[in-house]
């Protein structure tokens, strides 16, 4: 290692929000030609730190030193000019603009018009082998390619430091591998890379250095050779069980049978295309696939939220298709929506009110049209302790809770009534390791209670850990239903729509019993 | 000893509010109570600064204060005060004596200041006397003394009912600008029942009002149905339905055999028979009628409906987050229609009160008297809570009652009162502006002083902990 200054050094960055210290004297150094992973749970302060670096927040204490010079960023523009580029988790691209137009946006003079932008895109994509047409419209490009446009955008500003903020959340396993190759290439060309993630597998695959932060403080540096368990323990601050503990499934007679389900979207396209599968009581069927391949619409169709659906959804001989959401819930379907803040909770409502959100009629919470507050509060207090919801009281508005605690409220509500089917969509998205453990154990407990369970997840680790069988969806259809021990490579191929030769499929009942 | 107060689950997101300052109008105290185990930690380890902050919160006065500070009440009071100050400036600026004396302000500043005091003090004193207690006529007996107060209640009566019609729609996320149309239909229906039928005294007026409420509810429900089943925006729909109601009723008032007073050429209805008129509560000289009691009952009912009933639970859920309501099995479309039915019903009560209480000599298409629009102001000032609307209605009733006297006694144009009213809403609608003017902390952000105080408290507690 040379003795030069590190390309980027954050020294003693402290950022407070009121009494809350989101970043507490954080030191971070990134050298040219290295990938520095910033590992931490949600809410650990990673995003705050990067927003300070990118000029979106001003640090209360500490300094940002770039190539030996102390920087002062009043906004992202300053950061960009200084050579810091950011690849956001949610792309900052305008869908109806072309690649070149997006790259040009905000740098009209520097790039010398559209022609210059086109040239720049060609040059960068040639350098990295991106094969991107500067005149392609963003909305026509696959997600992985859109991300490359984000990278080109940052590189077109001659970024010396590139920050990748949870870049793999939206990618297939193959796209993730490709992204990692790009990151390695960038590193080899001398770019300093900050890679923010909470996915341990990726960290271990690519990081040169790892800094773990927890509760706003740097816990320490970890070696890339550390095991996942070691890294997770550092992140959480206590020993963590990463694998899901479960016994072989004991099947019951409960049964959900979905046959030839097709769902049309608003413009008449098939978003779920002729899907058939069975889930038996006592097993977990995981639906794997890249986000946006019909999983959302499939679960919404089960809940009765999709009105343009045909086929059959049969729960213990009871046809659910065509029923209202109310009727579906009354039939005993528990549902954890994929976006808990939007679909699962009323943020302004208290924990107690959210726990009765779907039981606003009749016993036990309503008598004579009036809400029985005593019954409601008793139930809430019981669930608060049973689900270990960390809140000041049952009156706390749910919107002020952390993601993990919010999800516990959703789970407590949905598992708090007699169920005939449990559907959980992205149940651990955005949760910290500790909450993930808890959610997984609740899902397995539900399965062991003899209830058919469907889990939709885009995280392969979760799918493999929870599933008794795995159904892989691609472009609205099911590519195949395979046993839980199917290799990741095979699952990855299936997620891209390929059906490998000699694929072992999991026959509904026998496969699950195996 | 576990002195680590924060667990891994605590949010460190910047947006997470420090104090559970819930929506101020949720009708529930966002009180902060501790989970039992945390309390134990506090007893054992008072040294932990985070805990100490919470101990401070446990003081009931502190918590109540915080709730009021975070809520609408302080904002409302500050908005009113600010508006009165601005109104005072306008009164002073338009006063002739003040203008005159300002010419030689630097020679004799006392003259101008006295003139300002006379103009502003006199105007607001007249406002007070016209709306609360008529002190100048105290020697004429108790009745004359408190008559202005009853006038205020009288003016407030339809404002409160109509305010509820806006407030309940607000709670479901709907903007009911259709008060005029709803009130007009209600007035027409109640009036028609009044002058067309012969019924026993008490029953007649009650039936007339009930029919008026139903008419308003239907007109509101139509707007709700348009919104729910076609996706049309309720603001557009209710505004347009106002015109439909206005001109339809104008036509009916012009058409003999419908609403027009037989033998009249003017678009005016027959007068209400005595049996269909709301009687005065206290008898002459007071004009305050039993409609006020109906408004109070409406507030009580609305309060139960919004805060306690399961229908209100659905109303608020849809208002806050319609997606979550949908996922919880609520019929969002039905709730939308029902909310507008109730909103129209409250407006209907106001319309019926107008025709059975305020203007009983036959009504015109101006019977709504702009109350449907004033109601928006009232509901906003009242934070869309039933009792908030009640008190806001009283205040605006007082402005109406006192404004006349102010104009008569002091020659201050009544428009000044309208300016004050409008300013109140302006300030209510822009809380950060008022907070900035009064140096109050913005929510979600603590003032430096607060942070410093907290640090002091924490340090003191730490010392105490070290001593014990």
Summarize the helices and strands and which ones pair or pack.
The complex is a heterodimer of chains A (514) and B (468).
Chain A: E1 8-17, E2 20-30, E3 35-39, H1 46-53, E4 61-66, E5 69-71, H2 76-82, E6 84-87, H3 99-104, H4 108-111, H5 113-128, H6 143-156, E7 161-165, H7 173-188, E8 192-197, H8 200-206, E9 209-214, E10 217-222, H9 228-236, E11 252-264, E12 270-281, E13 284-288, H10 295-303, E14 309-315, E15 318-319, H11 325-330, E16 333-336, H12 340-344, H13 351-355, E17 366-367, E18 370-371, H14 373-386, H15 403-414, E19 421-425, H16 433-448, E20 453-456, H17 460-466, E21 469-474, E22 477-483, H18 488-495, H19 508-513
Parallel strand pairs in A: 3-8, 3-9, 6-7, 7-8, 13-20, 13-21, 16-19, 19-20
Antiparallel strand pairs in A: 1-2, 1-4, 4-5, 9-10, 11-12, 11-14, 14-15, 17-18, 21-22
Chain B: H1 36-44, H2 49-58, H3 60-70, H4 72-94, H5 96-102, H6 109-131, H7 142-171, H8 179-196, H9 201-230, H10 234-254, H11 291-307, H12 310-320, H13 322-327, H14 332-358, H15 371-381, H16 386-410, H17 415-429, H18 431-438, H19 448-467
Helix pairs in contact in B: 2-19, 4-6, 4-17, 4-18, 5-6, 6-16, 7-11, 7-14, 7-15, 7-16, 8-9, 8-10, 8-14, 8-15, 9-10, 9-14, 11-12, 11-14, 11-16, 12-14, 15-16
